[in-house]
Every structure is written in structure tokens, then in C-alpha cells.
């Protein structure tokens, strides 16, 4: 008799736990959390050059890439590091479109640590570089922008927007 009573208590306890896990409000809060997570992931820093190549044209082989896409504002920023040979080829191709211009930019918090440190040492928290035409990287919807060779580094900052 006590075995049946214990089994019945255990069964009722298991059903109560199962019912508590299926609450309607909790399911809706999970959907909202998943939506927020998806939005946060779209703003997360990515490091996959193949994925970047599905979004824009990447005609030069990079050694390192960090990038973020702001889809609602149709903006993409990427930090790319190239070998000396690829950097020279990129610069030569870009100079055919227009001459470089001296620029200063503010680094984002997700930039590589070397660039953050370099901006900290500049005294005004900026990075100095030369801006080139980024036409080689254009792919719909990104049809406007520039690529900046950061002084005293192997890094380039690519800024693209929709026209």
C-alpha cells in the first residue's frame, strides 16, 4: 500500500513540474528574448571573411578581418589586415580611381586592440590614415564608401553605405 501511495505522489509531482514548464507567458518572453538575441547578433563583430564576401565584394586576400553590418541603416564597417603585397595592389588599384586624401577617424570599441592602442597614443583618440576609393568592394546595396589605410599599421578600415 505504501508503494502505491509513493508512486502516486511521485507521479503527481512529475505532472506538476511538467505543467509549470509549459506556461504561456514564459513562451512569449522566450520569443522576445530570441528576437533581441537575433538583433544583437546582427550588430555583433564578425570575423569570417567568407561571410563578408557574401555581403560585399572582397577582391583582395586578407590576413585578418573584423566587421559589423548595420542593416537598418545600410552601413558596413570592416577592419582588414593585408599582406604588404596585397596592400600595395589595393592602393595601386584605388589610386586609379582617385588620389588619396589624409583623414582622421575615431575607432570603434570593437576595432583590433592594436588600433585602439594606437588611437590612445595619438592624444586625441583618433587614427590617422589615407582615404582611398573603395569601388573594388562595391556590391549591392553598398555602392558608396571609402577604404582608409591606417598610418603605421597593416590595417585598413572599410566604410560602405548604400547610395
Describe the structure in your own words.
The chain has 163 residues and is α+β, with helices and mostly antiparallel strands. It has 2 domains: 2-41; 45-162, no CATH class. The protein is 42% helix and 28% strand. It contains 5 helices and 6 strands, in the order H-H-H-E-E-H-E-H-E-E-E. It has helices at residues 2-20, 24-42, 49-55, 84-97, 113-121; strands at residues 62-70, 75-82, 101-105, 127-133, 142-150, 155-162. The chain has a 6-stranded antiparallel β-sheet. Strand 4 and strand 5 form a beta hairpin. It is globular.
What keywords describe this structure?
163 residues; alpha+beta; six-stranded antiparallel beta sheet; 5 helices; 28% strand; globular
Determine Rg (CA atoms, Å). Answer: 25 Å
> Structural class, please?
alpha+beta
Walk across the major sheet and give the strand order.
1-2-6-5-4-3
What is the general shape? globular
Order of helices and strands: HHHEEHEHEEE
* Low-confidence spans: 24-41
Largest sheet: 6 strands, antiparallel
Helix content: 40-55%
Our estimate of the beta-strand percent is 25-35%
Q: Average pLDDT value? A: 82
> How many angstroms does the end-to-end distance come to?
80 Å
Amino acid at each position: 500500500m505504501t508503494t502505491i501511495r509513493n508512486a502516486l505522489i511521485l507521479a503527481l509531482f512529475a505532472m506538476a513540474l511538467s505543467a509549470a514548464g509549459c506556461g504561456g507567458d514564459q513562451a512569449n518572453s522566450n520569443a522576445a528574448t530570441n528576437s533581441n538575441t537575433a538583433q544583437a547578433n546582427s550588430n555583433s563583430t564578425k570575423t569570417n571573411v567568407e561571410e563578408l564576401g557574401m555581403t560585399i565584394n572582397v577582391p583582395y586576400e586578407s590576413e585578418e578581418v573584423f566587421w559589423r553590418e548595420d542593416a537598418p541603416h545600410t552601413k558596413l564597417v570592416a577592419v582588414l589586415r593585408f599582406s604588404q603585397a596585397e596592400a600595395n595592389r589595393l592602393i595601386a588599384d584605388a589610386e586609379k580611381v582617385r588620389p588619396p586624401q589624409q583623414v582622421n577617424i575615431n575607432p570603434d570599441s570593437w576595432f583590433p586592440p592594436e588600433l585602439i592602442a594606437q588611437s590612445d597614443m595619438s592624444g586625441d583618440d583618433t587614427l590617422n590614415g589615407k582615404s582611398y576609393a573603395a569601388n573594388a568592394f562595391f556590391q549591392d546595396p553598398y555602392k558608396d564608401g571609402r577604404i582608409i589605410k591606417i598610418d603605421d599599421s597593416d590595417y585598413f578600415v572599410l566604410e560602405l553605405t548604400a547610395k
